[in-house]
């Protein structure tokens, strides 16, 4: 693509949106000084963004300042919204987030999805999406897109679930099953969880490894504020990093993979507990009650995580590691042995390990915010639609 | 930085250079159609590049075509050159590469650098640099910059060698020791080797893991045509990925790191050979002669590489793995067990493993070409200098 006036205008629209989003309300003059363009150029861009419903004027700034009062600009609390959805092993969830980043509607439905065919699950999810969209529309919002988080590998077409072993889905084109009323993006839940951490986390670095778990163990790499997706979109398979190369066989074909030591099923087995629906809650409850078998099992899972993360940290040199998803709830019992192992093996250069504040909400929020971010990053897409 | 006319002009100068570099000689009209700008706009850009000495006119195109003959443009074979240098454990090398990518001068000096203080090594390297620069200048070239490949971790300032265990250098600021006649970049040898593979390799993918070895084992990740450097610039430490977590102690503080199984010293020890100067040549000679102890040692090193690479492939999902540097020379004996291990552990999704054609020349060429690429990517820097 040639670098043209048109391309420059699109990038500058994004710069205005990001400035107002990060620091607003701001006057036109303040935006101009933030992004280094003339006030006249900014005014043209702002007028276009107001016409598209992405910015709104709050009226004249408070008096008492020098010069003619400017009108403060804010990101619109009406207009486009991001719709996020999550297909979990034990639940479905949908939410709507406005351009200001506020969650404006949310529904969750519990119930096992493992082993169900994709069609009825997606039909149920679609009805939840309609419910959330209707609620958002009643508040003056309209859906700019739908992003769906799934516990599995997603092809780079961002539609096809290549493999979701814990749902037992293979090569499932969600694009064919979901309504086509607005743009669709399907992504791995660990990836969306990592994006949520990047965008919403407190002081999260821009280069980090986000580790999460539901039944499997997934990870996502954020490098310089961008997800590293891999050639096929499969990057982040921390669960299949070999921890003990002669260890137990793994369904992936390998031996001694991390999931054989730190996956939920392995931990439940080591702790002598039954498989059930709220597996993480069960483990956390027993550990909090002082059950030594459960604590030992979690300590050993932490060790295995520490060994696998030593490899990942050596390869990637991230600024930090964040434990999210189900792992966040088990962190008090995983972290001590995980940190010990990592510190011992990376002599004095230990990478800091923190726990996500977002916990199991991360993937859903990451999905919805990814739609919002796409609008902020290229407001002209919405302008052309509106 | 605001997105301005000036920024657009710089990017378009780069687009012209890359078009002529990749497909030249080209007429102005052909460049315009390649990059999607008007012929008038391209002419202005081309005139500027000719004045800076980056492009040259080859004279009118051959007659017989329709319309007024255009003058074909080519990347200049005079003008700026990239100077590359390599500090190896057993050698020093310097070369000059012109904008057309041809090596125009090269010197190599063999001799152990292990345990020598940085000052005399850099003094020797500087005299080799002067020699190569003088030779390049006699052909009408002038040095646009110097890039130095070192076998160790380099800080993000691209001057300071934080740790080069096999030279026994620590926190050494090469910027203070080298002549300041032109811009300096210091980088890890595995990183420069990977860039050489990216730019000069035959059909090398744009997402790959490049594994090389001198005494240690290093790797470099190229993602979408860009090096992944890590937060501190230390990414790619494949040599310290745990292979057997209870294995032998490693000087890094860990246990059972890859280097304990596949580093040159470990392989020599396992093969019952003495440490010497041309360690790789010695191993290759014995293996070629059918020495079973050496072949077993290399087979086991290949297995360990396969285990460590399984983790890396699961985390990064690269399009391929390339063995370069010293490993390229040992590939016939490493590859079978390496590929077996990787294939078995990544069931049916095995990532292709290939061997670099550049071998031990990679880091030096990568360094010199990185200077050339910097000029192609932002020709205005040279324009302002000239």
TrEMBL record, chains A, B:
Chain segments annotated as coiled-coil in the UniProt record: none
An MF annotation (GO) of this entry: DNA-binding transcription factor activity
Upper lineage: Bacteria, Bacillati, Actinomycetota, Actinomycetes, Kitasatosporales
Domain HTH marR-type stretches: 14-65
Name of the featured protein: ROK family protein
Stored InterPro entries: ATPase_NBD, HTH_MarR-typ, ROK, WH-like_DNA-bd_sf, WH_DNA-bd_sf
Any Pfam family hit: ROK
Family label: Belongs to the ROK (NagC/XylR) family.
Domain of life assignment: Bacteria
Species in which this protein is naturally found: Streptomyces griseorubiginosus
UniProt xrefs under CDD domains: ASKHA_ATPase_ROK_BsXylR-like (cd24076)
